[in-house]
Amino acid sequence: MVSHIPKAELHCHVEGAASPDLVRKVGARHGVDLTGLFDAKGNFAWHDFTSFLNAYDRAAAVFRTPEDYRDLTFSYFSSLAAEGAIYGEVFISSDHALASGLSYRDYVEGLAQGIRDAEASTGIVGRMIATGVRHYGPDRILAAAETVANEPHPLVTGFGVAGDERMHHPRDFADAFRIAGEAGLGLTVHAGEFGGPQSVRDALDHLGVSRIGHGVRAIEDAGLVQRIVEEGIVLELCPGSNVALGLYPDVASHPFRKLGDAGVRVTVSSDDPPYFGSSIGAEYGWLSENLGLSDAALIATTRTSLEAAFVDEATRARLLASLPA
Ligand code: ADE
Ligand code: ZN
Predict the structure, then answer these.
(1) Which atom of ligand 1 is nearest to the CA of 193?
(2) Is residue 9 annotated as part of the catalytic site, yes or no?
(3) I want to staple 172 with a disulfide (CB 3.0 to 4.6 A). Which of 71, 97, 111, 138 is the partner?
(4) pLDDT in the model for residue 1
(5) Distance 56 CA to ligand 2 centre (A)
(6) Ion ligand 2: residues, CB < 5 A
(7) pTM value?
(8) How do strand 85-93 and strand 7-9 relate by DSSP bridges?
(9) Atom nearest to 190 CA in ligand 1
């Protein structure tokens, strides 16, 4: 039972947080043909990373207006709060907004309204991390960084890159991360999920990030684990996602605990919850039941998330002070 544990989530893709029901509802609003998107049970249909990314893009494309995006963040942050979360960050993607015919400004305003509404009704605090999509290529990632730097928003506090890590090299994104960093944004990048330890090293060498999305495969290289500890890099671990995508056979085999025991600053998140049968509550529950983390260890995980959050210092201090001693 982890319902009493205060939780925080640093790694969730907002389009990937849309439940099948919400996608059906918003799709119907716009008359979108969703044939083939769902399996017989009504869940998203996918079978490997590539088909997952395709299903994700199709589901994302039903969201077309600021109100659609407001409904998305309101639904996601309300569900986080209902599971005992006090803080959440979502990855947003101007490329997905553009694909839906929305400007970055309208997209962010819609998302921000849902975050504010969820905070007003539940108290949960939320922020956004603008991302470029790796398999769309370095030019689009640079454009995403320029957009976020040129059109600042108080709730957009980070920049990152998601997508297919098997494509391109981090040095190709160095300018984008420099621009975002100079704009005062926190920096994170997906690495060490489908790429091995070298992918994490390359990200650390070239991008100046304080956090790595996943980074789990650092466990395959003791020297890299040592470096991550020494540099204080925080890993946004997503055990349920890793199991669903076939990196590990089950949560009991996931190196969350090994990384933490080695001194790495580990956090837990759900990534794309409805695709992976996950949620923030489920992730904390798996850490407790399958990896034997104590309540104190779970609360320490939340503390690490808040310490690493891309949020102003006053809010961070308030949230940290709300944790049990
Ligand atoms: N975009 C959404 N989910 C992702 C994941 N697990 N890895 C990379 N890119 C993503
Ligand atoms: Zn992710």
Answers:
(1) 7
(2) no
(3) 138
(4) 84
(5) 12
(6) 271
(7) 0.98
(8) parallel
(9) 8
In tens, the pLDDT along 224-268 reads 999 999 999 999 999 999 999 999 999 999 999 999 999 999 999
The residue nearest atom 4 of ligand 1, judged by CA position, is 163
Based on DSSP, count helices (H) and strands (E) in the chain, helices before strands: 14, 8
Catalytic site residue from 9, 83, 193, 283: 193
DSSP state of 39: -
Tokens representing 55 are: 């299903």
Ligand 2 mean position, distance from CA 121 (Å):
27
Eight-state DSSP code of residue 45: P
Structure tokens at 275: 């695709």
pLDDT tens-digit series, residues 188-219: 999 999 999 999 999 999 999 999 999 999 99
Between the CA of 163 and the centroid of ligand 2 the distance, in Å, is: 8
How far apart are the C-alpha atoms of 96 and 151, rounded to whole Å? 17
Q: What is the distance in A from the centroid of ligand 2 to the CA of 190? A: 7
What is the C-alpha to C-alpha distance for residues 216 and 234, in angstroms, rounded to an integer? 11
Which atom of ligand 1 lies nearest, measured to the CA of 165? 8
Q: Which stretch of DSSP H or E encloses residue 129? A: strand 125-133
Binding pocket residue ranges, ligand 1, CB within 6 Å: 13, 16, 56, 162-163, 190, 193, 241, 271-272
User: In one letter, which amino acid is 209?
Assistant: V
Q: Are 9 and 302 in contact (CB under 8 A)?
A: no
Q: What is the CA radius of gyration of the chain?
A: 18
Query: For 210, which DSSP code?
Result: S
CA dist., res. 264 & res. 57, Å (int): 33
DSSP letter at 168 equals S
Strand (E) positions, 31-151?
A: 85-93, 125-133
**Which long-range contacts does 69-72 make (Cβ < 8 Å, 24+ apart)?**
69/14, 69/97, 69/102, 69/107, 69/110, 69/111, 69/114, 70/110, 70/111, 70/113, 70/114, 70/117, 71/22, 71/26, 71/114, 72/14, 72/15, 72/17, 72/18, 72/22, 72/26, 72/111, 72/114
